[in-house]
Fold this protein.
Amino acid sequence: MSLFEAVVILLAGVAAGTINTVVGSGTLITFPTLLAFGVPPVTANVSNTIGLVPGSVSGAIGYRAELRGQRGRLLRLGSASVLGGITGAVLLLVLPSEAFDAIVPALILLGVTLVILGPRISAWVAKRHEHLGGLPEHGARWVWPAVLGTGVYGGYFGAAQGVLLLAVMGIGIDDDLQRINATKNVLAALVNGVAAVVFVFRADVDWAIAGLLAVGSVLGGQIGAGVGRRLPPNVLRAFIVVVGLAAFVSFLWG
């Protein structure tokens, strides 16, 4: 690895850590960068996942004020993310990439659509739960399996995982979008963390790349938390849509 490549990978890690904390989809910066430098796809994927874990943790710490009072929700949904992340990581190691990559654009587009329609759908969901005393703190019953499915996707590849998580929780959980974004950061960290553990023992990891991405993503996580926490809900929602559409176009024509 040349000095130029090392600097570019480090900067890509900063950008990915920032974007992952605010929305998600930071992998769309780091993964193509690694491929451009000739890193084999699977090695790039697993090294990228491991390298971005510290950034996810950094972003979650940056949102610690918004995490207050969410312990029960995090424990419940965190179990779904852990199970999903392990499953997705194992699938990456045993299945051909074509088996899953084909549906990635559809998943991203679905997530963007749900974010756009989120306020209207969430109001409808809340109304249907009025006779039950309102939505539970951890969300509607379908939120847990939906977070599990998102975890499977995140463990396999992870790009736009944050968009999908925000769409699911923004609709099924009656809470402020910034608090939901804080939850998203913790769940994404769990998915990436358990997937990373699987990859450490079962996959070919480029530790130099993982280390550079880790340093960059930690810095980016703090930058993202500082920016994301100041965005009004509608602006944050618009940013989610823009990043999600960019991810969709990247996969479709990449």
Summary: The radius of gyration is 17 Å. The chain has a mean pLDDT of 82.
